[in-house]
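[Discussion] Sanity-checking designs against the backbone

I'm trying to build intuition for which residues belong where. Below is a C-alpha cell string of 70 positions. I'd appreciate it if someone posts a full sequence so I can compare it with mine line by line.
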C-alpha cells in the first residue's frame, strides 16, 4: 500500500467517476495504473519491433518480390 497526494479537483473527478462506475476511488486509480503500465509495455514492444527491422521495402518492390506484379 502507498499513499499519493492529489489536488481537490482530481479528487472530485475520481469520486465522480467512481460513483458513476459504482466503485471506489482506489479501484479507479488501480485501473488507471494498470492501463498506464500496459500502454508503456506496448510502446516498448513496438520500439523493439521497429529497431529489429533489418530493412524496409517499398510497396512496389514488395509486390514484385511476392510475384504480384510482373
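Best answer:
Here's mine. Compare freely.
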Amino acid at each position: 500500500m502507498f499513499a499519493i497526494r492529489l489536488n481537490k479537483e482530481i479528487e472530485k473527478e475520481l469520486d465522480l467517476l467512481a460513483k458513476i462506475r459504482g466503485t471506489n476511488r482506489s479501484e479507479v486509480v488501480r485501473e488507471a495504473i494498470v492501463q498506464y503500465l500496459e500502454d508503456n509495455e506496448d510502446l516498448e514492444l513496438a520500439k523493439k519491433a521497429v529497431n529489429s527491422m533489418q530493412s524496409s521495402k517499398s510497396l512496389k518492390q514488395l509486390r514484385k518480390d511476392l510475384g504480384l506484379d510482373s
